[in-house]
Amino acid sequence: SFKDIEIIFCDDGSNDNSTQLINYYQKEDKRIILIRHDINKGTLINRNDGAKIAKGEYILFIDGDDLLVNNILEKVYIKAKKNDIDIIQYQTYSGDFDKTFYCSDIKREEKAIYQPELSNLMYYENGYLHQSEFNIWGKLIKRKIFMEAIKDIDEYYLNQNMSLHEDGLILFILFKKAESYLFIKDYGLLYFSNKYSTMRNIRNKDKINKSTKDSFLYLEFMFNYTNNTLYEKNMAVCQFKFLINTFNDLFLKTTKGFDYIYKIIDLYLNCNVILEEDKIIFRNLKNQFKKTEQNLPH
How far apart are CA 152 and CA 169, in angstroms? Predict the structure, then answer.
């Protein structure tokens, strides 16, 4: 129902017939714009390239395994303009292509949140982490806020071609830059859990070392981008413990990159504002990695 949009396809080095399909649809719809990378540069650079050429006041990211619900663009745009909101998040459905979808069903009031509460939203809410807070899809974002946020990410991280946690890098800064946020109870997106997607393949034997490296790149980023106070560092600590709980089985299968892993764990262990009870968890993880490394065939 909302027609006044740009549709920007960012083809990040695909090797199928995506480009040909997009070229075909461009002939039918003048709103369609195509950006193509000859080689895969990763989602952060890909999203940034799309946002840079966009002309609209707001942007909304849709990944290759997402489908928007009818009329959601109109709903979120009207609410954003009416209330001058920087970020609007809506509910999502998730599921496999051939199975029943389940609802995100986030229990939150439909009211605007402002700073300073907003900067911590993605990490704390009554002691519970909402996985959807880590995803840049499912949100309408003021383009100027996104552009300001991505400028604050060092080239070092942008060029790592991360396939895991890259949304967390931008969202952490985005939630600090934005002045206002609104969650709405409308369902706006279907997230298809594709068996060939990056997230479904992070535990494949040939992906384990890369997935582990990405996890510790993210933890390095979180440590460096939080101030040296207990309140701020707890954001990084919260993420660290979340990754241990979620990916420990993957970490146990790591076969290389241990020096870098130890370096990042030591950042947290040597920080004077991190609680000792959390450091015990990190020491145990370091010992786990050391045992894994020692048991590798030489």
Answer: 10
Give the separation between CA 107 and CA 237, rounded to whole angstroms.
24
Helix (H) or strand (E) holding 103: strand 102-103
Task: Count CB neighbours of 166 within 10 A.
Answer: 25
Q: Who's near 89: CB < 8 A, 6+ residues apart?
A: 132, 138, 139, 181, 182, 183, 184
CA–CA–CA angle 262, 268, 274 (5° rounding)? 155
If you average pLDDT over every residue of the chain, what do you get?
Answer: 87
Task: Band the pLDDT of 222: cuts 50, 70, 90.
Answer: very high
Q: Tell me the two tokens of residue 244.
A: 């241990």
- The two tokens of residue 167 are 């949304």
Peptide bond before 116: cis, by omega within 30 degrees of 0? Answer: yes
Look up residue 277 and give its two tokens: 């009870």
93 three-state secondary structure: strand
Of 199, 208, 239, give the one whose Cα is nearest residue 221: 239
Question: 82-138: per-residue pLDDT in tens?
Answer: 999 999 998 888 776 555 556 666 667 788 989 988 887 766 544 444 545 678 888
Decide: 2 and 28 in contact? Cβ < 8 Å.
no
